[in-house]
Write a structure and sequence with these properties.
By secondary structure, the protein is of the alpha+beta class. Helix content is 28%, strand content 27%. The longest helix has 12 residues.
Amino acid sequence: MTVSEWLDAQEAQGIDVSQIDLPEDLSYDAVPDETIYFNEFRPCSILCPENHPYATVERFGRWYMSRGQDKAAGIHSTDGFWHLFTKDRDLAVETARSHVE
C-alpha cells in the first residue's frame, strides 16, 4: 500500500488526515513522487551536525506532505517538529514557507 492509498482509505473512513501520523512501515519505506519545496535555515557552518529549522513539501500521488522544524523553535533545538497532509499544493507550500521565514 502506498502513502496516497493509505491516506485515501483513512479519509474514506471519515478520519481527518491533515495531522495524522503515518504507520512506521509506510513512513520509512515511502519515496515521494516529487519534492516540491525545501528550505533550511542554517546560519552556522554547513558542517554543523546539529538540528536546524527546515521545511519541505513532498508529493505522494495526489497528496502533499508538508513537514519540518519550526524556525521559532530556534537553532539546534530538538522541538518544533510539525507536519501536514493536504491535497492542496499551494496550501502545503505556503505552510512550509511560513514555518521557516
